[in-house]
Specification:
heterodimer; A: mainly beta; 7-stranded mixed sheet; 11 strands; B: 7-stranded mixed sheet; 3% helix; globular
Chain lengths: 109, 122
């Protein structure tokens, strides 16, 4: 089973600043990596898939990078609506298996 | 419009059985895998398993194998998650989500239900 580890657990950033979130896989997942945003009381929302492709309707301030075992989600110029919990997730094409990181809470500094 | 709609909150006693549902619409339901994800209070997301409604091929996370049963009825475009004997530790929010197409989501989970809160208490 592939274990995903996110850091930091909590990130305090001021509105307008840049946030950088990290995700590490216990073994290579190639580019099979997604990022989700979750706000309180809501389901997760897909932001990024294939490590760097923005999902439909996701603003350009969200960008993803990395491959293999090291990945990064960058949010440039944080808006108030961006403060939430972010999860990375690896996925297999076949068999269809998934695992999530433990999440990074992005809070207002 | 793609929609994934889950059944409502449940309150159960330990030892009782439960089946919650997830209805897909606006797309070819048999052709897309449906995943189930647990979120315990104040905690992160845990992938439980996934089913292909077209032929009911089902895969489980090792952590949930034998603990729950995932099924689907493609004739009514609905997937299910069930327990035969609930425990207090099953209290959580449960989400279902569609595994998206490779071209457009890279097999990530693109549409999510609103969640079903399950509370198990004596």
């Amino acid at each position: 089973e592939i274990v995903m580890t996110q850091s930091p657990a909590t990130l305090s950033v001021s509105p307008g600043d840049r946030a950088t979130l990290s995700c590490r896989a216990s073994q290579s997942v190639s580019s099979n990596l997604a990022w989700y945003q979750q706000k309180p009381g809501q389901p997760p929302r897909l932001l990024i898939y294939d490590a760097s492709t923005r999902a439909t309707g996701i603003p350009a301030r969200f960008s993803g990078s990395g491959s293999g075992t090291e990945f990064t989600l960058t949010i440039s110029s944080l808006q108030s609506e961006d403060f939430a919990v972010y999860y990375c997730q690896q996925y297999n094409s076949w068999p269809p298996m998934y695992s999530f990181g433990q999440g990074t809470k992005l809070e207002i500094k | 419009e793609v929609q994934v709609v889950q059944s409502g909150a449940e309150v159960k006693k330990p030892g009782e059985s439960l089946k919650i549902s997830c209805k897909g619409s606006g797309y070819s339901f048999p052709s897309y895998w449906i995943a189930w994800v647990r979120q315990m209070p104040g905690k992160g997301l845990e992938w439980m398993g996934i089913i292909y409604p077209g032929d009911s091929d089902t895969r489980y996370s090792p952590s949930f194998q034998g603990q729950v049963t995932i099924s689907a009825d493609k004739s009514i475009t609905t997937a299910y998650l069930q327990w035969s004997s609930l425990k207090a530790s099953d209290s959580a929010m449960y989400f279902c989500a569609r595994r998206g197409p490779f071209d457009g989501s890279g097999y990530s989970l693109d549409y999510w239900g609103q969640g079903t809160l399950v509370t198990v208490s004596s």
